[in-house]
Amino acid sequence: MIPYILAAFLYMLVAVVMAFDASFASLGLLDWFNGMVWLRLHFITLGVLTELLFGLMPLLTARRYGLSRPETRWDIWATLNVGIALLIMGIPLTAHIPIIVGGTFIFVSTALLIGQLNNICPKNNDVPSYGRKFYIAGLAYFLLGIIVGTGLFTGWVDPLLITGNATEVHIHANNWGLLSLVFAGLLIDLYAVWAKRPLANPDSIKTIFWMMTVGAFGLIFGPWFIGGYPIVKWVLLVPGLVLHLAATIWLLINAIKPLRDSKDGASIGMQHLLGSYFWILAPILMAPFVVLGIGDLPNDVIEAMAPQALIYGWVFQFGAAIVPYFFQRYLFNDKKAELGGTKLSLILINAGGFFLWASIFIESARDILHGTAYLLWAIGMIPIAVDLWNKMKAGMAKMETAV
Ligand code: HEM
Q: What residues have CB less than 8 Å from 78, skipping those under 6 apart?
């Protein structure tokens, strides 16, 4: 797990610098540069979260089944990290070779991880598969997200028969597919550890799994074929949206109900974890207005900018809670580790989301609101980065003295 923690730590530090840069560029204090759109999000999505989750999923699954701890698969770590490095080189340059080779390496890494998770089986089959099936389904959708993401700048959109907005297909595969399912799997595997009580209705997990998985299918292949076959809006996109939304809300009720019944309520970490879902629900609640063209909304601006609030408000905020937890859990073997986050990170990360959405609707002040959103996110990331820095420093010092 340590090589994944080291890489996630590096990308966390780069992500903080990148958020400040994105802010100063929008505020006109620094020049914009090629690749900014990709870099300001993918150090978080690929660099921090994907990195950590690739290390975690086999460990959590083996522990859930009472199996011995699997060794680090260096082939999976190496293909993931060589792939990310090549994308960081290729995307800003829109150079086809490093993008295609980088995307292919990450595809191979994901396929190897699916194979590893598939082979981690319970000693006897009547043990429920907990988060494992969510991880495998999420990674399967990631394979699609990687193919489309790799093809966006390299001319694969037509050969892939994508007739809708290809970036939207990519975003849906990686957010409604990969991260929604993997985050749900983590909640199922670790909620009892984080909240010190069980989920409200464990019997709902199987139905939530199928609703979220089938929902993601509709949300990915709806925009994929919508240009050629408008009917898919009604047979895939809208039903997918409803299924996925219902599954997400059901999962949240499962997690919030036990906290409401308790006197000490939710910790800051749990508020980060569950509060982050507001930012995946916001675009979903806006979607009917965009899809049905209700009201005089700036649909193109919403589609172009909403992903930023999704990644910082949901993905990064979920990470702000779990990344410090896993650093403490695995650098110190601390079974009493707590979720991360501070009052400051909670306030600033969510304030940033509101400023980003305000920049969508208030065109006259768009740049200053957009720049302020990134400034709030960048400052809100600092308490998390400092916490990780201290954990990394103390954890590594402990390991170095042990050898
Ligand atoms: C092999 C992995 C990946 C590749 C090759 C890739 C590639 C791309 C490319 C080329 C873009 C368009 C950027 C632009 O318009 O300038 C993009 C956008 C985006 N990607 Fe990825 N991506 C990958 C992984 C991910 C992951 C893991 C996530 C999230 C979970 C993600 C979420 C997004 C989002 C939200 C956007 C929209 C950015 C915006 O328009 O502001 N990507 N990606």
A: none
Residue of the CA atom closest to atom 21 of ligand 1: 149
What span, in angstroms and rounded, lies between the C-alpha atoms of 116 and 280?
29
Distance of CA 33 from the midpoint of ligand 1 (Å) = 17
**Rounded to 5, what percent of the chain is helix, strand, coil?**
80, 0, 20
Q: Dihedral through CA 351, CA 354, CA 359, CA 360, nearest 10?
A: 160
CA of 233 relative to ligand 1 center, distance in Å: 23
The pLDDT of residue 285 is: 74
Q: Measured from the CA of 50, which atom of ligand 1 is nearest?
A: 27
Q: Among 45, 101, 312, 316, which residue has the most ligand 1 atoms within 8 Å of its CB, making it the best to mutate?
A: 45
Q: Which two tokens stand for residue 15?
A: 């992500």
Q: In this predicted structure, what is the pLDDT of residue 376?
A: 98
Burial of 401: CB neighbours in 10 Å, binned 0-12, 13-18, 19+: exposed
Q: Pick out the chain residues at pLDDT < 50.
A: none
Q: What residues are in contact with ligand 1 under a 6 Å CB criterion? A: 37-38, 41-42, 45-46, 50, 87, 91, 103, 106, 146, 149-150, 152-153, 167, 170-171, 174-175, 178-179, 307-308, 311
Predicted pLDDT of residue 262: 72
Q: Are the beta carbons of 134 and 181 closer than 8 angstroms?
A: yes
Please name which of 310, 172, 314, 299 lies closest in space to residue 252, comparing C-alpha atoms.
314
What pLDDT is recorded for position 290? 65
* Architecture, CATH, for domain 2-402: Up-down Bundle (1.20)
* Residues 215, 241: Cα–Cα separation, whole Å: 6
Half-sphere exposure of 102 (CA within 13 A, CB side): 22
pTM of the model: 0.95
